[in-house]
Every structure is written in structure tokens, then in C-alpha cells.
């Protein structure tokens, strides 16, 4: 299939399988969604770094060591949040485009 045929196939969703349609839509995913999830990633990274920094400073003071450990645990949990945000984003977007395909082909 040459480039012109591929472009025609992608512009006419009736010739695509559901999987091809969803993959194509994911490749040209709306900048709105990418930007909003990018903001979540950035906020997560910033607060994660902040918790580690504050926790590290707290370790200099005996009376604040418990709070320092608490902030380290909180920051460690945030390491799990970032891939979770990505996964939720991917699953929701694929579900949305799959439903969109289904509605067009009822």
C-alpha cells in the first residue's frame, strides 16, 4: 500500500478495522489531552522533588526525622503515580476512540 492509499484508508474510517482506527487516532491524539496529562506529570514531579528535598532537610534535625521519613514515603508513592497517570490516560483514550469507532459503525 503506497502513501496515498494509506492516507485514503485513514481518512475513510469505514475501511479500517476498529484496532486500526484506534491506533490511528492515538497517533494523532488531541493536543488538549496531551497537555493536560503533561501538566499532571509536571505537578507530580515537582511535588515529588519537593517532598524529597524537605525530607532531606528534616533529617538534619532529630525532632523532625519522623516527618522526614513520612515525606520520603509520600514521595516514593508518587513514583508509582506517574506511570499510573500514563496508564489511565492510555486506557481512557483507547476506550474513547473505540467507542467513537463503534458509534460510527452502528
TrEMBL record:
Q: Where is the YrhK domain?
A: 35-90
Question: Where is the segment annotated Disordered?
Answer: 1-22
| Record field: compositional bias (Polar residues) | 1-16
InterPro entries given for it? YrhK_domain
Has keyword Membrane? yes
Supply the alphabetized keyword list: Membrane, Transmembrane, Transmembrane helix
Which Pfam families does the record cross-reference, listed alphabetically?
YrhK
What are the TM regions of this chain, as residue ranges? 39-61, 67-85
Key word Transcription present in the record? no
Q: What is this protein called?
A: YrhK family protein
Which species expresses this protein natively?
Halobacillus locisalis
